[in-house]
Amino acid sequence: MAVVTLGAHILDVLARPVESIPDGQDTVVVDEIRVTAAGAAAGTAVALARLGNDVVSVGAVGDDDLGDLLVRIMERNGVDVRGLVRRTADQTSASILPIRPDGGRPSFHVPGANLTLTAGAVGPGLLSAADVVHLGGPDVTFGLNDPAFFEMLAQARGTGTVVTMDLLSNMPDLLRGAAAFLPHVDHFLPNEEQAVAMTGHDDPDKAARALLAQGPRTVVITLGGEGSLVATAGGVERLPVLPVDVVDTTGCGDAYCAGFITGIARGLDVLEAARWGTAAAATVAQGLGSDACLTDLDGVLALLK
Question: Are 190 and 177 in contact (CB under 8 A)?
């Protein structure tokens, strides 16, 4: 299936396990350090490619060493990166994540070139040619909040393209801005904190219904260790997590989106697609980084048997 991922591209540097930041010039020896493509567009693009989809990724990165490395990682995973715009005046967005022994992930983050992405980066006809367009982090690529881009989405949906959306931040002001995209989206996949911030409802069921009223056909809210819920006009259903040993939760949301999109692109109903997303997230949770343990679709689906 042909998928376009559009939005936030981040280079993650991760280390585990980190119990505390050492004092002064002290050194702590850890078990593992990795560098991965991350962000709600780049991380999802890599996961989609590993699940067997043809992926074009569109975004803005710096013309710097971090950008070179990010592009190389994505290319090595089979992602078409010709949609990436290189910025000379901005660095590539990057994060440093010291992963705690329990899988928690505080971060140090530079927004970088993501803030410069605009509709001008989207090639003519690219969205309409895709089976699925995934908006990854429009809350931080707010240059896409533009009538010209919404018209592109409308034209693509008019030709049968399905539009999905995930968010990156938990900042209320940015999340409120992302609400402008909801009328142009078929399936919206926020986490619980994002859904609550966007609606003011502490109950995720009520938050999902409030988000449905703003335009999407489906709202899928991920609930961390409590699983996820799938809301449509027909009602709300909950899915449990799969029992795995959690190493790191980084990228689980991106993997969930990739599994869900892969299912939707293959004609599954939204509940079964969400089960594929659950399995993809459980796969990634077993290792370090946004692409950990994710090899192919068969490996993911094996968790559901």
Answer: no
pLDDT tens for 218-248 read 999 999 889 999 999 999 999 999 999 999 9
Q: Report which of 147, 120, 152, 148 is spatially closest to residue 133, judged by C-alpha positions.
A: 152
**Which residues of the chain are under the pLDDT cut of 50?**
none
DSSP 135: E
Task: List pLDDT tens digits, range 48-81.
Answer: 999 999 999 999 999 999 999 999 999 999 999 9
Look-up of token digits 């901005």: 90
Domain boundaries, the chain: 2-20+30-118+129-304
User: 267: exposed, middle or buried (C-beta count within 10 Å: 0-12, 13-18, 19+)?
Assistant: exposed
For 276, half-sphere exposure in the C-beta direction (CA atoms, 13 angstrom radius) is 23
Residue 296 forms beta bridges with which residues? none
Q: Which fold has domain 2-20+30-118+129-304?
A: UDP-N-acetylmuramoyl-L-alanine:D-glutamate ligase (3.40.1190)
Q: Which amino acid is at 247?
A: V
pLDDT at 275: 98
The pair of structure tokens assigned to 204 is 């995720």
